[in-house]
Specification:
The chain is α+β, with helices and mostly antiparallel strands. It has helices spanning about 85-95, 125-130, 140-155, 170-180, 225-230, 250-260, 270-279; strands spanning about 15, 20, 25-30, 30, 55, 60-65, 70-75, 100-110, 115-120, 125, 155-160, 190-195, 205, 215, 225. It folds into two domains: about 10-120, Phosphorylase Kinase, domain 1; about 125-279, Aminoglycoside 3'-phosphotransferase, Chain: A, domain 2 (Alpha-Beta Complex). Helices cover about 25% and strands about 20% of the residues. It has a five-stranded antiparallel beta sheet, covered by helices on one side. A three-stranded antiparallel beta sheet has the order 10-13-14. The relative contact order is 0.12. It comes from Bionectria ochroleuca (Gliocladium roseum).
């Protein structure tokens, strides 16, 4: 069950006039935008949240394209990891990974959401390129992506360290908890977790026509994950192509195979069997 935010996440940013929005300040395309608090004198009529919005994810996230930047609003709560922190972490630990350039970010405590402004990434989403570039070099794309994955998947963390997660990942407690949920054994969870984007679907990988990866976007779910999940998740619908194609599952299959080359096993059958038993 999902609860609608107040105001709804899709109304987080509204255009008030052709050159006026109810948000912040940034440098964009050589123009200066100023961030200030709204006042009682600001008009309340004529606001349009749809005109610049390019993405709406349920009740928790939405994205607007204004000028040369993307403006993202995401539901926020105390102790929640921020996407801007994830991007900063990747730039520090794996600088070769092409992440969006963060212009500005802030938390609006009044409406419990985080705002993030990033520069536009060149290229097209893989989903769009799949349709628009009939000669897209998918083999080259996978080779480049495999190299990028190898660089950040080597950022490891032991699950017993409290700075990663709480005590429920303790091996003995975890095994008892899993058995209590369902006697069917879950996929094996190693004590060392790997830093992973976790949502490398075709709408989050930006590519050029020659197959070069120009950017990887949407880092809000990046975190440390057990090894089995890295390649296994590629079988889920989030990795399906949304464009018209003979096989929507092809990208997930190819990415899963590329991850297997990196040493990450796909445990699709084991995971589906365990989930089916739990539900």
């Amino acid at each position: 069950m999902f609860c609608e935010m107040t105001p709804p996440i899709g109304l987080s940013i509204t255009r008030m006039s052709p050159d006026r929005w109810n948000l912040g300040s940034t440098m964009d395309g050589g123009n200066t935008f100023y961030l200030r608090h709204r006042t009682p004198d600001d008009p309340s009529e004529g606001r349009d949240a749809d005109i610049d919005r390019v993405y709406l994810a349920g009740t928790s996230a939405a994205v607007w394209c204004i000028g040369e930047c993307f403006f993202k609003a995401h539901a926020w709560c105390e102790e929640m990891q921020l996407e801007s922190d994830n991007i900063r972490f990747v730039k520090e630990k794996a600088p070769e990974v092409p992440v969006p350039e963060v212009e500005y970010g802030w938390i609006d405590y009044t409406v419990n959401r985080h705002f993030l402004i990033t520069k536009r990434v060149s290229g097209q989403t893989l989903d769009r390129a799949w349709r628009n570039f009939p000669y897209l070099n998918v083999r080259k794309l996978l080779k480049i992506l495999r190299g990028l994955l190898a660089s950040w998947l080597l950022i490891l963390h032991h699950a017993s360290k409290q700075s990663l997660v709480m005590e429920f990942v303790n091996h003995g407690f975890r095994e008892k908890l899993m058995h209590h949920i369902q006697p069917e054994p879950p996929p094996a969870i190693d004590p060392v977790f790997h830093f992973y984007h976790a949502d490398l679907g075709p709408t989050n990988v930006m590519v050029m026509q020659d197959g070069t990866v120009s950017g990887i976007i949407d880092w809000e779910s990046a975190a440390y994950y057990p090894q089995f999940w890295v390649a296994t998740k590629t079988s889920l619908p989030a990795f399906h192509l949304e464009c018209e194609t003979d096989d929507p599952t092809l990208w997930g299959q190819l990415l899963g195979q590329a991850l297997e080359v990196c040493g990450y096993k796909r445990l699709d059958a084991e995971f589906r069997r365990w989930v089916k038993a739990v539900t």
